[in-house]
Amino acid sequence: MIALSLAPAWALQLDVPLLERCERAPVVAVVEVTSDEVRWTDGPRAELETRTWLHVHEVLKGRLDSDTVETVSRGGTLRNGLTQRVEDEATWALDGRYVVFLAPAGDRWRTWGGELGQLRIDRPGRLEAVLAALDVCLD
Amino acid sequence: MISALLLLSSANAYELYGDDWSWDETSLTPPVLLDAGSFPPSTGSEADIEQAVMDGLDAWNGVGDLTLHLAPDSAAWPEAGSIRLAWDPTVADGAVVATASAWGYGGTMIDCEVSFWAGNEYGTIDWATVEDPWQTDLAEVTTHEVGHCLGFAHSNDWGAIMRPVARGWRGLDDDDEDGLVAMYPPCPDADADGYACDDCDDTRASVHPGAIEACNGLDDDCDGAIDAIGTSTVGFGSTQSTSAERTGSSWLTLFDVQADAAIQSFTQSLVLDETQWVSFTVLDVTPGLPRTRTVRVAQMPAGSGPVQSPDLGVPLQAGHRYAIGAGVAGAARYPYAQGTGAAAHGLVPVGARWESYAPGLQMGDQPHGASQPHVTLRLTDPDSGQVCASTGPVTPPGGDASGDGGSSGGCGSATLLWFLPDLDLLARRRQ
User: How far is the first Cα of chain A from the last one, in angstroms, to the nearest whole number?
Assistant: First the structure.
């Protein structure tokens, strides 16, 4: 997947900035991955989808009715090793912590723009840096 | 991806999907199928679309051991195991303009589908077949997406075609080329036989795809089989024989020889209720040519199971069709013969008397192939089990011809089925 730059295709510096992603996503939250499941989709196309359950530590923007959200993304790996990789779809590390930009997908959620909608919080100070960058967007 | 993310991520080089998400060595040129007609007319003519996509593919060619090209007549190809490119009317999430969905199993890429989206949250995507700063260049995006189909993830190199955002110009940069060479290493042609990566032995100029297979313990033609006769088709067809007394049926085995070879011996399962003379016959039944027959007769004890012929040493000529088989002969009464082997056969009735079979049985005239089961003929060394064939008449090897220290017994046996009375032999024995 190639993310579209906002005007001319070569305007790389104008590619979807963090702040804009925050503004476009109805919900921004700090989450932790608790579990996931890969299965075949029910649609006419033979595809895999990964359902991932996130425990919500803090809602930074918008509103969530539960402290757990279920996200869905294309692709995944079945137990037999068959794998569908869909570029730029969100992929998760179990027990990993993220700042996520969420958009509704039916009765579930997806990350806005796939992997653009997830920021891994895996080092001290990273969360603070992200929050500082998003400050004007957050509630 | 955005600058803020770059500060948070490691800054270098290409990324691959897993350890080895590449196409298998035997399919380094997966067919690329393009549905040019799926694009809106505003993109350009189908010829322009094809050219842009070919330009995008060409960026990957000539660097590693990889050649990508559009398959002619895409609609005629099966979809599985290919790279498929098509415009999709879907409005994609976020700022996405195209997506590659790649399938892998056991570390090997097995299938890939690229969707060029109609639009995304920023509006309609204007696809262009030429480099136009105000449109999205189909060639550039093709190169990027096909890169995913080759096993690349996104690169952190800001000049790479595999970076996650459209770059604005075509072609690879050093980072992309480094990744391609790592994944699909180019091959030298050390033996200067004109074959490189597809040469299964780059130390012998006589070994390469298309070489003539010799009985030398080598896979001369790089088809994965040592001393194989090649792909010879064996068909099973029935033929009717009629006489005044009765109508019987016989079975014969036909095979087309696609490389000069020789059959040294073969086996056939028979059911013999007493010691019998068995005739082993190789018959050239090439349409339009005189039939030549080689018969060896041996006395076989009662019992059931495979019966091996004596040495035949019959040269087989490429392009000819042969019938092969064994049948009881010369007994006062006739049991039945039951065939086994590569194809399932039922009981083969034998006439009550040899005389009941009329001379001139039209062997080989039956169609074979289309409606009959097929197997592949392999001549195998009866001692070692090694598949073996020859470019000419096989002389029973007296030594270790392969030089590998292995057994070098009789060069070839094939378990094939045929039952057909040998009428000439019968006539001679009755005299």
Answer: 31
Residue in B141, B138, B118 with CA at minimum distance from that of residue B130: B138
* Burial environment of residue B140 by CB neighbours within 10 A (0 to 12, 13 to 18, 19 or more): buried
CA nearest to A58, candidates A70, A69, A67 = A67
| Chain B contacts in chain A segment 107-136 (CB below 8 A) | 110, 112-114, 116-117, 119, 126, 129, 133
Q: Which residue has the tokens 């702040």?
A: A19
- CA–CA gap between residue B196 and residue B21 (Å, rounded): 22
This prediction has a pTM of: 0.56
The span from the CA of B137 to the CA of B169, in Å, is 8
Nearest residue in B to A79, CA atom:
B105
**Token output for B171:** 């072609």
- For β-strands B337-338 and B292-300, DSSP reports them as unpaired
Q: Quick count: other Cβ atoms within 10 Å of Cβ B210? A: 11
Q: In this predicted complex, what is the ipTM?
A: 0.80
Q: How far is CA B222 from the centre of its chain?
A: 11
Which of B21, B99, B138, B146 is most worth mutating to test chain A (most A CB atoms within 10 A of its CB)?
B99
- B280 near B310, Cβ under 8 Å? yes
- Among chain A residues, the shortest Cα distance to B168 is held by A10
The half-sphere exposure of A30 on its side-chain side, counting CA atoms within 13 A, is 12
Buried b (16+ CB within 10 A) or exposed e, B245-256: eeebebbbbbbb
Instruction: Report d(CA B385, CA A119) in Å as an integer.
Output: 59
Calpha distance B212→B220 (Å, rounded):
6
DSSP A72: E
CB neighbour list of residue B111: distance below 8 Å, 6 or more residues apart: B79, B80, B81, B82, B102, B103
Q: Work out the minimum CA distance from A136 to partner chain B, whole angstroms.
A: 16
Burial (CB count within 10 angstroms: exposed 0-12, middle 13-18, buried 19+), residue A81: exposed
Is the model more confident about B212 or about B183? B183
CA distance B387 to B382: 9
Backbone angles phi, psi at B176, to 5 degrees: -65, -45
How does pLDDT run across B163-183, given as a tens digit for each residue?
A: 887 778 889 999 999 888 888
At A95, which amino acid appears?
D
Q: Are B134 and B166 in contact (CB under 8 A)?
A: no
Residue B15's identity, in one-letter code, is E
Establish how many alpha carbons lie within 13 A of residue B233's alpha carbon, considering only the half-sphere containing its beta carbon: 13
Query: What pLDDT, in 10s, does the model give residues B20-40?
Result: 566 665 445 678 889 999 999
| Structural contact between residues B125 and B153, judged by C-beta atoms closer than 8 angstroms | no
